[in-house]
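Sample entry follows:

:::
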Amino acid sequence: MQQANTNLVIRNPFGTMDVPAPDDADVMDYAAIATLAGNADDVNAAAWASIAAPSDPLEGAWASRWNGGADPTIAGDTPEAWKTGHAEARMIGTRIYLRFDWDHGRRHGLIDAAREGSRLVGKYINLTNPAITRPWIGLVVDTIRIDGCFPNGRLDFRR
């Protein structure tokens, strides 16, 4: 059987489904009101991961965690509970792509964000359930911490 040539171009470096319209009006509206201070009082300030930092300040392995929604596929999950996993960051030009998992690698997500200095502005897609997309902003605090939020909660990265 021969596969059809769809001329599909994938933007992200992971070869997965792309985040649809990562710079749309919903993202820009959320970015205009969402703030992250990056200070010592932030919920992501305390060390909760131990991923060795490679020589690149952003690309490479990270740990991830999110809250603010209950994953119906995880028994007993609540919006307040942190869902933790592994992540990888890759840069293409001024864009950062963060692919991450949770539920012991059974669920996957992707963030496509523009880098504006230390601020990241973009969107998240749940690759396991692509109907779920959310605006997301991040703050690169340093080489071991990226604070992130979406309208319902947090989606952070640590090394």
